[in-house]
Design goal:
It is built from 32 helices and no strands. The protein is mainly alpha-helical and 718 residues long. Among the domains are: 107 residues, no CATH class; 87 residues, Serine Threonine Protein Phosphatase 5, Tetratricopeptide repeat (Alpha Horseshoe), CATH 1.25.40.10; 92 residues, Serine Threonine Protein Phosphatase 5, Tetratricopeptide repeat (Alpha Horseshoe), CATH 1.25.40. It is globular.
């Protein structure tokens, strides 16, 4: 009995010694073993499974320069979401039950990396900061800093990422941390658009890798970068190295395709490369990769400046593409040809739109492409507005009888076009009569036109019936099935023929229906500017479109001659345009002879008080801290003059201040106060000019909404 009683305190002593809050050797050893071979081991196995799985199932667009790290796709990560959660749960147990274990820091890093996979960058960063600040394992602290740098890069906070990188530089990294830091550093420079530096770091990093698909992928990336920057010789070496490092078939194939192109660029044998690509197209095992081959053929033709042929190859790439990313790359290539090389902005806009439809919002190029597409769509809108208002104004100048006849002609022509379209729908005799027209600017690609897709499916069902996807499906046709298909075809053709006849009859009837003709004339007539106020409104739309078009030519497209001609047309047609000062400013800075510059003289003479006149007179201004302080004091004195009713002196001082303190943070407030000073006087024209000048000159000011409200108030009183 006494022996049993002695076991109780011994058991209590053992339990106390094994507490996670104890620093005894027994406790630490016990918790180290349990942490390593239980929770942490399961967490590590799950994490390796997750990363390996996501690498295997990744979808990459090999036509574009690959990112250093496989992009984190939270939607695709859902296939291993259970395992990711288990990594977090098991690693958390180390913190909950084995807090005195030497594996605690490693467990926290696993939690942070799992949160990166979930896209939870905020909490991941907090975990890595905690390990760096409170961790005891030097290796894991270094690993946490490297992962923290990766988090900042993923969030596009490159400045903070660089600060973390500078801290890591001073550390003595070991083992995997060296490799991971080099990769993260390469990723940083890639995000910062320093491609050759990225490739140089990759070259050094690849020496630390064993043969693997990941190493093959990084060789391919380095080859892409050298290819893009005109170093075909270095690119060739990297593409050759891909095959030596266990690539998958897609990676191997794309490396071979790029290798042919880089060798052709090095040796000037592009014709031989095209022939080699043509042979690859005939190889049955490349059936699913034909889009990549056509894309490279297009790239080679574009290098030779055969833009029409290049576009046709890129178009074939779109047709052969099996995924949206490949389509996006091909559409983008055609858009770039039309934008950069052919200056066909209308066509480029269509292809940029198609690019965005197929591009993931997470793509690095999504925002630049979207911005370019928006600019081009604005360009088309302004061009159409100019032409439309011009046509409407010409119609408005016609005598009533001639106008009535012209409107009737427009309506009848529209009905004829409608009848032709109905006849095309009705014409089922030749299903190949509608061909793919890549140059048709009014339509998108046939493969993305829902009307044409529906029409194609309908034609297929009518001819072959509803078929399951299978090889050689024609051989599976049974006699009974053939009979039902023929009956179905006959029924469908009869129904569609009847519907087409009705539509055609209605269309023909509409051409002679006086009541409908009169109604449509009235609708068109309502859009034509006849009264003086309508003509003025039409001209305002036209002048605004001309001005915005000129700015697009100058600021977006860098087409100086077109910008010059557009601004000159604006000033000739609308000399009193509220945008005249800004138009003169652009013409002045674009003038070839700055010593004899009529536009500068006109701006300084007609609009001496405008911001644009001050810009020309002052030139480049370096704003110092002292200048900012002086501007603030000046504004306080100016406001004192305004509040005490000394408007004449305040106005004179405001003009001096706007010239003296241009570029300071308080400049817009001086211009804003000037508007209020002018509002106290009787010079309505000067007040209107000051309001319009503010809207043009301070587009980023917080005061802009208030000034725009004043501008609208002025417009409503006219």
């Amino acid at each position: 009995m006494r022996k049993k009683l002695l076991l109780v305190p011994l058991l209590c002593l053992f339990m106390v010694s094994c507490s996670q809050f104890s620093n005894s050797i027994t406790s630490k050893s016990w918790h180290n073993v349990n942490a390593k071979y239980n929770a942490l081991w399961i967490a590590k196995v799950n994490y390796e499974f997750v990363t390996d799985t996501l690498f295997l199932v990744r979808e990459e667009n090999y036509a574009k320069v690959l990112p250093v790290f496989v992009q984190n796709d939270t939607l695709k990560n859902k296939i291993v979401s259970k395992e990711i959660e288990e990594v977090i749960q098991k690693a958390s147990r180390v913190a909950e039950r084995h807090s005195n274990s030497k594996y605690l820091d490693e467990a926290y890093n696993l939690i942070g990396n799992a949160r990166i996979l979930k896209g939870d960058f905020l909490n991941a960063a907090e975990v890595f900061k905690y390990v760096n600040s409170n961790g005891k394992n030097t290796f894991q602290k270094h690993a946490a800093l490297i992962s923290l740098m990766r988090v900042y890069i993923e969030q596009d906070d490159l400045e903070t990422a660089n600060e973390v990188s500078n801290v890591i530089k001073a550390l003595k990294l070991k083992g995997e941390n060296v490799t991971n830091y080099y990769l993260t550093k390469a990723y940083y420079h890639q995000k910062n658009n320093e491609e050759l530096l990225t490739a140089a770091i990759l070259d050094e990093t690849l020496k630390l890798f064993r043969k693997s698909e990941q190493k093959a992928r990084l060789y391919y990336l380095a080859g892409q970068i050298y290819d893009k920057n005109g170093r075909s010789d270095l690119a060739t070496q990297r593409y050759l190295s891909v095959e030596k490092n266990k690539p998958n078939y897609d990676l191997s194939f794309n490396a071979q395709v790029n290798l042919l192109a880089s060798q052709a660029s090095s040796n000037g044998g592009r014709g031989n490369a095209i022939s080699a690509y043509a042979k690859m197209l005939e190889d049955r095992k490349n059936k699913d990769l034909r889009d990549k081959i056509y894309f490279k053929m297009g790239t080679l033709e574009a290098e030779k400046k055969n833009y029409e042929k290049a576009s046709s190859y890129f178009a074939r790439s779109v047709i052969e593409s099996k995924n949206n990313e490949s389509k996006a790359s091909a559409y983008f290539a055609i858009a770039e040809i039309n934008y950069t090389n052919l200056a066909n902005y209308e066509k480029a806009a269509l292809y940029y739109d198609s690019t965005l439809i197929n591009m993931k919002p997470t793509d690095l190029n999504y925002k630049p492409v979207a911005a370019k597409a928006n600019s081009l769509n604005s360009f088309i809108r302004y061009k159409k507005a100019i032409a439309l208002e011009d046509s409407l104004q010409k119609l408005g100048q016609m005598n009533p009888l001639a106008l009535d006849k012209k409107l009737e002609e427009i309506i009848l022509n529209r009905e004829k076009e409608r009848s032709k379209m109905i006849e095309m729908v009705n014409n089922k005799a030749n299903p190949n009569s509608i061909s793919l027209n890549l140059n048709n600017l009014q339509n998108r690609w046939e493969l993305y036109d829902p009307v044409k897709i529906s029409r194609g499916k309908s034609a297929f069902v009518q001819k072959w019936g509803s078929r399951p996807l299978a090889d050689n499906w024609r051989r599976r046709e049974q006699q009974a099935g053939s009979l039902s298909i023929k009956l179905e075809r006959l029924t469908e053709e009869q129904i569609q023929a009847e519907e087409a006849k009705k539509l055609l009859a209605n269309s023909q009837k509409s051409t002679i229906d006086n009541e409908k003709l009169t109604a449509e004339k009235a609708l068109l007539l309502a859009t034509i500017p006849i009264e003086s106020y309508q003509i003025e409104a039409s001209k305002m739309k036209q002048q605004e479109a001309l001005f915005q078009l000129g700015k697009l030519y100058k600021l977006q497209f860098n087409e100086i001659e077109n910008a010059r001609l557009t601004f000159q047309e604006l000033l000739i047609k609308f000399p009193d345009s509220p945008n005249a000062p800004e138009a003169l400013y652009y013409l002045a800075i674009m003038a070839e002879n700055q010593n004899s510059n009529p536009f500068k003289s006109a701006l300084l003479t007609k609009f001496p008080e405008s911001t644009f006149a001050r810009r020309l007179e002052r030139g480049a201004i370096e704003v110092t801290t002292g200048m900012e302080s002086a501007a603030k004091t000046f504004y306080e004195n100016l406001y004192e003059l305004y509040s005490t009713g000394q408007y004449e002196q305040a106005l004179a001082n405001a003009d001096v201040g706007l010239n003296k303190f241009q570029g300071t943070a308080i400049e817009d407030r001086i211009a804003f106060l000037k508007i209020y000073i002018l509002a106290k006087g009787s010079d309505l024209l000067a007040y209107q000019k000051a309001v319009n000048d503010f809207v043009s000159a301070f587009s980023g000011s917080k005061l802009l909404p208030k000034v725009k409200a004043l501008q609208e108030s002025i417009a409503s009183t006219k």
